[in-house]
Structure formats: structure tokens, C-alpha cells
Specification:
This protein is an alpha/beta fold and 212 residues long. The protein contains five helices and twelve strands. Helices cover 24% and strands 21% of the residues. A hairpin with a 7-residue loop joins strand 10 and strand 11. The protein is globular.
Length: 212
């Protein structure tokens, strides 16, 4: 008998033991859903904007040469004018041409220290138009998970080639073993008396710079 090597292995081993050896094979899973989207690129970008704004995220569109200036405008919208660049942390893999001058690059400091920053700037791995979902994968472009959760304002840069139509298509572009974070609008809950409260489990403000 092999011993479990992780908590996941232990849980799965207990499930197999509980189910027993004499059990029917699981039925085939129907996979008739759409795995690609043939809609024009601009239509998908417009759909993504519509979904993001429906979730109360702000969207600013720009050309590739205007990214840093548009990120600065997004920070103006989220923080108000006069914000200090030193108070904004950026994912280490974000290209220089995305960054307004003076931002603090994440250097792997303790995660709790990230809460001292007022905003974060990251890239994404995939953006899913149908659901308005941004997927961060823990890469240097997306940054570690704590980077997108602790500061109160999150600015994500999305390029047009990262936008897919539906979830199945988006998932095919991702490493399924990566620490994926899926973001659909600002963090919010309505658990208490059905009253919407934003910023409970993550950033209160989500701003997307869409490059097309």
C-alpha cells in the first residue's frame, strides 16, 4: 500500500476506499458545448467591455502606444488625482511600456506587506468575453495571487489577443496546474441582508485597460 503524499492524495484515497472496488464505470461526459468562438475580434472585445461594466468594473480602451498613459488614467479614476506612484505595486513581469514612472515592482516581500499599497497593476493570462472574467495565472505578468487580492484597487491590462469567446476556449489556453485566479468584477458579497458590499474578499475597485 502506498502512502498519500499530500492532503489531496489522502482525500482521494479515502474516497476510493469508501466507494469500494466493485463499482460501475462512470458514464461518458457529454462534451457538446462550444469550444471555439468564430465571432469577429471586435465583437468579442465589445462583449467583454459590456460584461465588465455590468459587473461594475471600469474599462479604458487604448492603442498599444498609449498603455502607460491609460494605466495612469485608470489609477486617477480609482484613486483620485494626486496618487503617489510609490504607493502602487506592479507585477514584476509587466513590460516597461505599461508602467507609469515611479511604480514599485513587487520584489517578493511578505504578502502581508502588500496591504500597505493602495493599488496594483498586473497583466492577465486570458480574458473571457462571454462571462467578463479575467484569469491571472501566477506568472510574472499576472503576479502572485496576493498581489491581486490585498491592495484595494486593481488595474489589469488586457491585450486583444488574450480575449476568448467562452470558458472552454479560455481554459484551453491555461496551464491547469497553475494557481489560477478568476476575477469577474470587483470583490463583492450580498450575504448580509442581501445588501451588496464591495471589497470584502479582495479589491473594492477593478479597472481594466483594454489594448486593441
Amino acid at each position: 500500500m502506498t502512502h498519500p503524499t499530500s492532503a489531496r492524495d489522502e482525500v482521494l484515497a479515502r474516497i476510493r476506499t469508501a466507494l469500494g472496488a466493485d463499482r460501475a464505470a462512470p458514464p461518458d461526459v457529454a462534451r457538446e458545448y462550444r469550444t471555439t468562438d468564430d465571432r469577429p475580434r471586435e465583437e468579442l472585445l465589445d462583449l467583454l467591455v459590456d460584461r465588465l461594466e455590468d459587473y461594475r468594473a471600469g474599462v479604458l480602451r487604448c492603442s498599444p502606444s498609449e498603455i502607460a498613459a491609460t494605466v495612469a488614467r485608470a489609477l486617477d479614476a480609482g484613486l483620485g488625482t494626486g496618487w503617489d506612484p510609490a504607493d502602487v505595486v506592479v507585477a514584476p513581469g509587466a513590460p516597461a511600456e505599461w508602467r507609469p514612472a515611479g511604480l514599485t515592482e513587487d520584489d517578493g516581500r511578505p504578502a502581508v506587506d502588500l496591504a500597505a499599497f493602495v493599488a496594483t497593476v498586473t497583466g492577465v493570462s486570458v480574458a473571457i468575453a462571454e462571462t467578463g472574467t479575467l484569469v491571472l495565472d501566477g506568472s510574472s505578468l499576472s503576479g502572485r495571487r496576493a498581489l491581486s487580492l490585498l491592495p484595494d484597487c486593481l488595474v489589469c491590462v488586457v491585450t486583444a489577443d488574450q480575449v476568448t469567446g467562452g470558458v472552454p476556449e479560455g481554459l484551453t489556453r491555461l496551464d491547469q496546474t497553475a494557481p489560477l485566479t478568476m476575477i469577474s468584477g470587483p470583490s463583492a458579497t450580498s450575504d448580509i441582508e442581501l445588501s451588496r458590499v464591495e471589497g470584502v474578499h479582495g479589491p473594492r475597485t477593478l479597472l481594466v485597460v483594454l489594448v486593441s
